[in-house]
Structures are given as structure tokens and as C-alpha cells.
Amino acid sequence: MIDRPQPYVGSARLPVPAGLGRGFVLASVFVCAACGLVYELELVAVASSLVGDSVTQASVVLSVMVFAMGVGSLLAKRLRCHAAAGFGYVEALLALVGGGSAMALYASFAWLGGARVVLVLTSFTIGALIGAEMPLLMTLIQRIRAQDPGGAVADLFAADYVGALVGGLTFPFLLLPLAGELTSGLLTGVVNALAGGLVVQWLFRHDLRGRARYRLLAANGCVLSLLLVGTAFVGPFEEAARRAVYGDDVRVAVHTAQQELVLTGGATRAEWPAAGELRLFQDGRLALRGRQARAVHRGLVRPAMEGGPRDRVLIVGGGDGLAVREVLRFRGVREVTVVERDPGVVRLARRDPGLRALNRGALDDPRVGVVNADPFDWLRERVRSDAARFDVMISALPAPEGSAGPKLYSQEFYGLAARALADEGRLAVRAGAPGGRARDFWTVDATLRAAGLRPCPYGAGRRFLLARPAKPAPPTCLGERRTRVPPSTLMHPRYAE
């Protein structure tokens, strides 16, 4: 591979002492690294909410960006002779692409029908620009004061890694809760453009001659203007994209700390013919449909409630109140505990007239207690404290395909559920449909068995599993063959939806 001649490394004319100049460069490395990681996490978060399967989206973003960083490092070799101008243009373009990446994904998903291609292209572009930063910064810091290359690299990477730590913690705990995904990206782009522009336009301004300085200044000004204007139009953009995805009957849209909740259609049955059937979407996934909601939850709850004692009932998920409504229809229920991770779902189910009409205000019943916590952690702490056991457990979670909480379908979770059940307790689980995604259904079945429970499939249309604590199997004679009972024979028509 033929490399270009080494750039001239001379002492740069700085407006401050050399030591302070190096400090400014390292500070810019810190800020740019923080912004780069925010872009990365933002891409993963937006892609997971739009497409689902967070593991796949994170793998795609990380692998493409790391590969692109290597490509960007090679391409940056051609810019070393003009390191200051090159770094300025790289940061301006990175701020524009990274800051607008979330809006680009939303626009592609809403109006083009998919976001995978845009996700890969955006990840590659951001990765290439991030990879181009380090060679240029290495050249700039050596121009301030020549030093051992190993020491210079150590300083740069130290600032880079610390900045990545700060960016990684700032995004989920500060930016996302306070500003949301789209505004967070745009504001991060503004910070990125200011950090890069300040280093070049002030610290290395003598390296820019004549028109080059004004062209770079104009580029930074255009980028900052576009990002700031974008923050002013985030609201109308989200509304237009939401209507393109869900239709014109969007009635409520709420961003919680965990997800986006969207209600479409009329609030009452009388409004459904004209305004559309009531539907609840959680991060773009249909979670509830008005005409089917009661039948689905009745099919899930009734077999477990009719199978024995039902004094104490635990509902995992179920913040919409529909499973609670079905549970309260049975006599003898003294206590119902609802463990819902997202308090926004419970708040919406209590206040929205459409959801409240479906659940009939079940969440306000004095026998019902709502706990806003992660169900896995809450159940583990309860088992450790040896608290009273439950007669019935209802897992009112979405079917395992595309589920946002895979650990709630794990052997560990079902093992905790088995320990929290009374001797005659029952656990009802929504497991999907054998005719649709058979692998998901039978994976849940096998996981329940591995956790010491005896599952039995039931339901028509949708498929559920009713599990009880396993009892020791009677000994079999030598040579006796065990035959597998076909699942269809276990589905009682009484529990058909």
C-alpha cells in the first residue's frame, strides 16, 4: 500500500501556552468521544423501539461502526497534511449525521416502510467519521509539542475512554429521560459541532488561511443552524411520523422512561365505527385490541382461577388492568398484586376513558395493589424474604416473540415463580401460537419443565400454558414405552376464546 508523504510537523502558533493548548485538545477528545458514544447508544435505542430485537440491533450497530472506524482511520491518512481543516470538517459532518440519525431512522420507518438499510448506512458513516478523528488529533497534538508517540497515544486514548464513559452514562440517565431520543441526538450534535469548531477556529486558527477558514466557519454555522432548527420541529415531526405509522386516529401518545405508549381509535364502543377500534401500542408493538382484549384475557385467566384456591393472586405485567378485571370476577379473591415495570401504563389505564371502560376501573379496587418494579428483581426479593406464597400467578406479558423482557421467559424466572407458588398453585403464561412460531411456544414449554413445573397447553387462536409445581413421577417398569401426547389433545374446548 503506497502511503502519502508524512505531513510537516512543526510548532503550531497558538494563542495560549503549549501546555494549555494540549489541555484544550484533550478536552475536545473527551467531548467528541462522549458524543460518539451517545450516537451509538441512540442508534441502538431507536432501532430497538422501531424494529425490535435489541440484541440484533445492538450487534448490527456495534459491528458496522467498529468496522467503519478502521476504514475512517485509513481514509484520514490523506488529511494529515491539513489536519486542522480536516478535523473541523470531520466534526461538522459527524455532528450533522450523528445528531440527525434518530430523525432519519424515524423518517425511513414511517415513510419508506423500513429502517434497516438506513441503520446500516448511518452506523457506517458515523463509525468512519469517528475513526478519522484519532489520526487527525494525533497530528494536531504533536504539532503543539512533539513528544514520544507512545505517550501521545496514551493521553489521547485516556481522554477518549473517559469521555466514552461519561457519554454512556449521560444518555440513559440524563438525556433520554429529560429530552427524549430525537432531541437528545440533536443537542449532542450541537455540542459536537461546538467542540470541534472551537478547537479549529480558535486554537489552530493560524493553520487556516484565507478562504479556507471562512468556508469551514460557514460549514459549522450551517450545521449548527440545521440542528437547532431541528430541535424546534421535533414535536411536529414526531406527530407526522406517528400518524404515518399508526394512522390518523392517534388519540394519545406518551413517552415514559421505558417506552412509547400510543392509543388509537375511539374511547368508547360507540365511537369505534367512526373513529376506529381502540388499540394500545407499546414501542410500536400492538399490545391490546379493543374487540379481542376481553376474550384474550379471559382465556388466559379463567383456567388458572378455576383450578383450585385463589385467595392470593400475582399478576406480572398487566398494567392495563384487563387481567385484573378478569381475576376480580371470581369469588374468594382477597388480594391481587400487580407488578408492572412501567408506571406510565398503569397511569394511562387509570385515566384514559377508553382503557378504563375496558378494565372497568379494576386497578382502583381496594383488593388490588400495584408495585412499580422489575418483576424479576421483585420476585427474587420476595422469595428470599420467604413471604406468603401465591395461589395463582398470571403472566400477562406479551408473547415471547419480540418481547422487551427476555429474562421474564427464562428458566431462572420460572424457577422463582415455582418457589413463590403454593403447593396447589397455578401459573398461566402467554406463549404464542404453535401454528405461528412453534419454536417460541415449545421453547417456553421446555423452559417451564426445566424449572420444575408441569405445563399444559390450552386456548384456541392464541396459545397459553397452565403450569403447576411438578410432582415426582411414578416409577415405570423396565421396557415400558412412554408416548408423547399430541398437544392438540390437551386443548380443552371450554377454554377456547
From TrEMBL:
Which InterPro entries does this entry report, sorted A to Z? Answer: PABS, PABS_CS, SAM-dependent_MTases_sf
Write one Gene Ontology MF term: spermidine synthase activity
| Every PABS domain range | 225-479
Q: What's the protein here called?
A: Polyamine aminopropyltransferase
Q: Which UniProt keywords apply?
A: Membrane, Polyamine biosynthesis, Transferase, Transmembrane, Transmembrane helix
Give TM regions: 20-39, 59-76, 88-111, 117-141, 153-176, 182-204, 216-237
**EC top class, in one word?**
transferase
What does the record give as EC number? 2.5.1.16
Name the family: Belongs to the spermidine/spermine synthase family.
Where are the stretches annotated Disordered? 475-497
The record's section on CDD domains has: AdoMet_MTases
Task: Enumerate the Gene3D superfamilies for this protein.
Answer: Vaccinia Virus protein VP39 (3.40.50.150)
